[in-house]
Amino acid sequence: MNFEKFLTKAVSSWMSEDGPQSDIVLSSRIRLARNLKKYTFPTLFHHEEASKVIAIIEAALADGAIEKNVPLEMLKMDELQLLQKQVLVEKHLISPHLANDSSHGAVVLTDTEDVSMMINEEDHIRIQCLFPGLQLKEALWKANMYDDFLENKIDYAFDETYGYLTSCPTNVGTGMRASVMVHLPGLILTRQMNRIVPAINQLGLVVRGIYGEGSEALGNIFQLSNQITLGKAEEEIVEDLTSVVHQIIAQERSAREALVKTSNIQLEDRVYRSYGVLANSRIIETKEAARCLSDLRLGIDLGYISHLPKTILNELMILTQPGFLQLYAGGALRPYERDIRRATLIRERMELNGR
After folding, report:
1. Is the model more confident about 202 or about 268?
2. I need a surface site. Which of 22, 252, 325, 355 has the fewest CB within 10 A?
3. pLDDT value of residue 311
4. pTM (2 decimals)?
5. Annotated binding residue at 212?
């Protein structure tokens, strides 16, 4: 397996499959932050230590298979081009921090891309497991399987009182971040999101954009995750987040039902106008594409449009990002050129999927 394999399909297996509550919950993610004992954390270490950390983890992973018939591939950041790293970010396989700020980092990926292990990001190891729909418990189980394998071979930085030690104090304890990616057009259109976000924050959770901290909520897609890792067990964190997500799902469905009941023709018109823009535009910017794709997915979920798969939102939200567009073009594109190529790609995909 090499990097080119990760470019043959825009959407990873976990994004192209249906899961529980997948009309609203696009994906579930568990991320575990771990550091090696007796090694300086990545925020302060030097290149020699970084290389040693990579070598230790590479040796540990080579010593036996974690999952049967599931190969692992290590990609080192200093061996990748800028566009290649950007594509990995757009596929949610690495963080922007690892792509932009770590020339001595790496990522280990499974063949299906449902597991990625970032090395020398903010922490020595960040194990990330991704599942379609609302499957936090399943993602936690798999993350723990990879974590247990490594912990049997590597000495982690661990304190009996505080738990796993991490670069950021907010991750100390379990070192776990649980998050879900949700599509919430109903709550946006009914203007309820501004009321809901503060309530979510009061429960110890945080709402972010599609690519995590500091990113924008393109296409009405948000990430909900826990803020507290100290003093709570992993299972408790997952249960608390799952409970809140079920409430968000109920409110989103209620908002959609209200829109259909009170503004059905206006909503249908909005969906088909967005469909028309996507199917016919020759130039389209990222934000407009994301908004129209959100409307299209909503129309598919509500039954207005039946000839397109609902996974088209997942696929095109990634395929139309700047990194993918430029990589497929074979080099750098100016913003105007990207807008033209984005419109062309969307038209072609809609024609292909609509047959």
Report:
1. 268
2. 355
3. 83
4. 0.90
5. yes
Q: Is 178 annotated as a binding residue?
A: yes
pLDDT digits (tens, 9 = 90+) for 19-44: 899 999 999 999 999 999 989 988 88
State how far the Cα of 129 lies from the Cα of 109, in Å rounded to an integer: 10
Q: Does 29 count as an annotated binding residue?
A: yes
**Annotation-wise, does 282 bind a ligand?**
no
Nearest-angstrom CA–CA distance, 273 and 279: 10
Phi first, then psi, for residue 75 (nearest 5°) are: -115, 125
Q: Annotation-wise, does 297 bind a ligand?
A: no
- Choose among 186, 193, 304, 189: nearest CA to 255: 186
Residue 208 among known ligand-binding residues:
yes
Q: How many CB atoms lie within 10 A of CB 46?
A: 9
User: Would the annotation count 27 as a binding residue?
Assistant: yes
Is 53 known as a binding-site position? no
Q: Per the annotation, does 92 bind a ligand?
A: yes
Alpha-helical (H) ranges within 3-103 are 13-16, 47-62, 82-90, 96-101
* DSSP H/E element including 70: none
Q: Is 209 annotated as a binding residue?
A: yes
Per-residue pLDDT reduced to its tens digit, 43-87 = 888 888 889 999 999 999 987 778 888 889 999 998 888 888 998
Q: Which of 78, 137, 135 is nearest to 107 (CA)?
A: 78
User: Does 237 carry a binding-site annotation?
Assistant: no
Q: Measured over all CA atoms, what is the biggest interatomic distance in the chain, rounded to whole angstroms?
A: 64
Pair 64, 77: CB distance under 8 Å: no
